[in-house]
Amino acid sequence: MRSSRPSQIGVREVANLARVSPTTVSNVLSGNRPVSATTRERVRWAIEELDYRPNHSARNLRLQRSGIIALALPEVRVPYFAELVHDLVRAARDRGYRVLVEQTEGRTESEHAVMHGLDRGMVDGIIFSPLGITRETFERRRGSTPIVLLGERILGADVDYVGTDNVAAAADATAHLIARGRRRIAAIGDQRGTGGTGPQRTRGYRRALRRAGIPYDARLTVRTATYHHSDGAEAMAELLDRGVELDAVYCYTDLLAIGAMHTLRSRGLRIPDDVAVIGTDDIDEGRYAAPPLTTVTPDKAAITTSALDLLIRRIADPEAPVRQVLVPHTIEVRDST
Amino acid sequence: MRSSRPSQIGVREVANLARVSPTTVSNVLSGNRPVSATTRERVRWAIEELDYRPNHSARNLRLQRSGIIALALPEVRVPYFAELVHDLVRAARDRGYRVLVEQTEGRTESEHAVMHGLDRGMVDGIIFSPLGITRETFERRRGSTPIVLLGERILGADVDYVGTDNVAAAADATAHLIARGRRRIAAIGDQRGTGGTGPQRTRGYRRALRRAGIPYDARLTVRTATYHHSDGAEAMAELLDRGVELDAVYCYTDLLAIGAMHTLRSRGLRIPDDVAVIGTDDIDEGRYAAPPLTTVTPDKAAITTSALDLLIRRIADPEAPVRQVLVPHTIEVRDST
DNA sequence: CATCGGATGCGTAACGTTGTACGAAGTCTG
DNA sequence: CAGACTTCGTACAACGTTACGCATCCGATG
Question: I want to staple B18 with a disulfide (CB 3.0 to 4.6 A). Which of A38, A102, B23, B46 is the partner?
Fold first, then answer.
């Protein structure tokens, strides 16, 4: 049932119709070399006539680039990451790139696959927001696809990186609660094991307490498996069930904070009167939570553009010196504190 | 500073090291033709030794497939779509595909670009959740990349499609409110112009009213520009400012509903006592809203898998008969009604 | 013992694009 | 007006992979 015409329309067909060579067609398209106005018009016409569309794979093979970058992250459905995808897709388009989304879902094997597994030529670069990558794993990396790390700094590793000063952000959040007169401040969201952002935030939390002369109470800390609503809700319930006195909660994620507020409300506690809550990330959902959530947040636009620019720079020059960018953070004060 | 070795490691280099032909290397990798155990081992070893990784572009060019599908939707940061990306990325991986995310941001030109603009060979197929595509636009489509439409049915168009019966869903939502004893039911979220889901929902809303013998009151309807929190909040404010009596709101989106609840709370109205609220989509955020949001929702897993299966079927056989799938919907009753 | 045939492996030719080296005009300059 | 330079086009050879048609080797069979 194949049609009698060549199965695909290529430069060759266009060239025939326009009575020029394939090279000329290519030059008209790329503007790579000058083509006289008349031939250019003829080629344009032929392209239109045949509805010619360049073949991406062939062009990639030839040019050794795909125009696609991968964004690898734990879960798109987590709003913080969804916003990241949103911003990055938009920024990437402005720079002539498209975005392939890869989900690791927190699985170590998937994170490894991101670093080692992608075929050559599939993407020009990777922006990777890891959860549990160690420095060692990273240095064993064999693939040479340019990569930029996001959020979680791999200490001492020789990689481009964009993120916040998590210790300072956590300290500021905690200090904000202290400034509101709170003394019994819980912390929700540390994660075990990984050298990730969790421990850094815990450091900041404890530093702020120390500076205010407030003793650290381990009973006020709850680890969570992940960073969803449900984790926050359960963690808060656990805190309340422990019977330990508390008048504020610092959550490592807005989602955790919103989950925590859910539990507080359902137990009849008033926010912020009984318990003040502060989150992290400034997702849109927080603005419409009950009450609107105070949050400490990095400059997200800066993260997106820095990451992309770093990656593009790295693609252009693999030998460029490694750069690590720290973006500033601010506290968005709303009604929950 | 180039190394003296060939710039790229290809089947050719592997073949040399393993003292076989490139074809054999290819066969070892693809399992396409039998290779004796001993040669297979030798090839495997050489692959390992050189850290050979197939070149995606070259393979694509040869096989005329890319293993990538595009998911085109308005905005990833809208939770409903974020969940869609999440589910689709996961489902696609199970079937050997990766997902490229394209954002139209509601711009007609972008929607056109999705249908016409993608280069051949970039993606094997497209799953497209449009906002304002008309049947006419669609039929002028020239590109031949397989496509499946999501959510918004283009009436009479000859395309694979997956969605819900929006009229019935809206009617059920409205009927649910009526069953709760409400009579003054507002509707938030219709959109002007487009032949999209908005008008369909309005039809369902009015049908349910009619069946219950409740007269339709135009002052109870508010259009919104988009479907974000802020639109819902503003629409609710406008309704209240109109001074028209109301005891329930049907929102065309959970985000609108959560925005509306925000306004209701800030005006001191109790939910559901003073005003009951029902949304659409069942996003995670609704479970943790104050109060938890009742919502009418399609079977989202079914949408994802149907869309993907339809697309894969279409890729395999472009001549397959067009199929349109309607997935069932249910009402998730929570505290807001 | 000659021949057949299954099991393996190889050489070659694409896939559709673009860069390079070259040629054939036309245009300027002294 | 000769030479040199510019302008525009062309032919050819890759980019790295896989499908196709053959060639070869071996044991088995008549």
Answer: B46
Q: Which residues of B touch A58 (CB under 8 A)?
A: 61, 121
Task: Give the CA B28 to C1' D23 distance in Å.
Answer: 20
Residues 253-272 of A with CB under 7 A from strand C: none
Asked if residue A38 keeps its beta carbon closer than 7 A to nucleic acid strand D, the reply is yes
Residue B270, chain A, CB below 8 Å: the answer is: no
Rounded Cα gap, residues A107 and A203, in angstroms: 25
CA distances A80 to A280, A286, A298, A336, Å, are 10, 11, 11, 19
**B105 Cβ under 8 Å from any chain A Cβ:** yes
Rounded Cα distance, A271 and A182, in Å: 13
Segment A283-304 shows an average pLDDT of: 96
Amino acid present at A12 = R
Q: What percent of chain A has pLDDT over 70?
A: 96
Q: Whole-structure pTM over 0.90, yes or no?
A: yes
pLDDT of A68 > 50? The answer is yes
Query: What pLDDT does residue B94 have?
Result: 95
Q: How far does the CA of A217 sit from the C1' of D22, in Å?
A: 79
Among A67-76, A115-124, A167-176, B3-12, the range scoring the smallest mean pLDDT is B3-12
State whether residue A192 sits within 8 Å of chain B by CB: no
Tell me the shortest Cα–Cα distance from A155 to chain B, in angstroms.
27
Looking at residue A176, its pLDDT comes to 98
Model pLDDT for residues B200-234, shown as the tens digit of each residue: 999 999 999 999 999 999 999 999 999 999 999 99
B66 φ/ψ angles, rounded to the nearest 5 degrees: -115, -15
| pLDDT tens per residue, range A166-205 | 999 999 999 999 999 999 999 999 986 555 788 899 999 9
B157: how many CB neighbours lie within 10 A of its CB? Answer: 18
CB of B50 within 8 Å of a chain A CB? The answer is: no
Mean residue pLDDT of chain B comes to: 92
**With an 8 Å Cβ cutoff, are A75 and B86 in contact?**
yes
* Burial of B200 (C-beta count, 10 Å sphere; 0-12/13-18/19+): buried
Label residues B241-256 b or e (16+ Cβ within 10 Å = b).
eeeeebbbbbbbbbbb
B302: left (phi over 0), alpha (psi -120 to 50) or beta: alpha
Under an 8 A CB cutoff, do A290 and B290 touch?
yes
The pLDDT of residue B11:
94
Residue A5, pLDDT above cutoff 60: no
